[in-house]
Amino acid sequence: MKKKIALWIAAPLLLMAGISCNKNGGGLVVTPYTGPNEASTFLYSPVEVSKIKYLLSLGWLQPVGHTIPTDHVYFWCDIPAGAANIPVYALTSGKVDKILLVPVLGIQECKVWFRVNEKFSYYFDHIVLDPSIKEGSSITAGQKVGTTGLGVSIDLGVIDETLTLTGYANPKRYGWEETYCGKPFQYFTDALKAKLYPLVDREGPDKDGRIDIDIPGRLTGNWFLDGPVFYTNNPDGWDKELSFAYDIQHPSVVLVSIGGTIGMVGKWTIAPGAPLPSQVSVANGKVAYALYSAGGISQDPNQRGLMIVQMVDDTHIKIETFPDSKATDAQFTANAKTYAR
Q: What predicted TM-score, i.e. pTM, was given to this entire model?
C-alpha cells in the first residue's frame, strides 16, 4: 500500500499543492561565505522521526518540473487530515543564505537555503518559514525554523562542494545544486541514520539513489531539445527535457520521462523484454518502445502510445511519439525531434 501511495497519490498531491518542487532557475547568487564554519553533519531530523511516514530517495521523476531525476529527497510526514502543520527543525548550525517565497493557494511556502560552512549548504522546500527568520539570520542546530506547508511532505537537498558528480554526459546542462548534489541521508549522525534508512521506500540495498545517471554512448540518462538554444535544467527548459531513467522505489523498473515538445508528457514504462536503454547505442538503429502508464512494479495492461528513438551519434537522438497508438513500430515523420546531451 505504501508504494501505491507514493506512486499514485504523491504526484497528484504535489501538483495540486503547486509542488513541482521549486528550482532556483539559475537565479540564486552564490556569494563568498564569511560566517561560522560548522561541521557538515546533520544533528537533527528536519521533522520528528515519529512523524515520518516514509522517505523517498534522490531521483524522483514527475514531469514537467521533475522531468529528470530530482536533486533532493522527500520527507513524507504522517499528518492526519485537519491536523496542524508540524514543526521543521534546522539540521545543524549555520546561516540563512537565501529565501525564495513561493506561495501556494494562499499558504506562504518557501524554499530556504542554509549555509553551514564554506563548502556545504542544505535546503528545505515547501516549508512555511518562521517570520523572525530572514536572509542572513544565524541558525542553531535543532532550532525550529518553520512548519510543513500545504502538503504533507518537505524536500531536503544537500550541496556539498567538496564533491563533484561525474555521471553527467554534459555538466554544462546543470546548475550548482545538481553539480554538487550530496546524498542527504549520508550526512546524518549514525544514530539518526539507523532510524531514517529503514523508512526509505526503495527496494534493494541502495537507499540513497542518484541523479547523474547518463551512460556515454547509450540511451540511458538525460536529453535536452537540440537547436540554437542551449537548454539547461531550469524552468525555461523543463518542457524540453527527456530522461530514460529508473523508478526510485523499484530501481529495476525503467521509466521514460517526457517533459513536453514531443507529446505524451508524463512518465511511462516500457514493455517487458524491450531493449534496455542502457544497452541501446548507435549500432541498434531505430528502436520502438510501446509506452505504458507508470504504476509501480505492476505492468499496465493497456498500451498508451508508441515511441521510436534512434541514436544518431553518441550525443544526439532522433525521437518521436505517437499518442494512443497500439502499433509496435512506426517510421519517423516530419514531427520527429532531435535531442542532445
A: 0.89
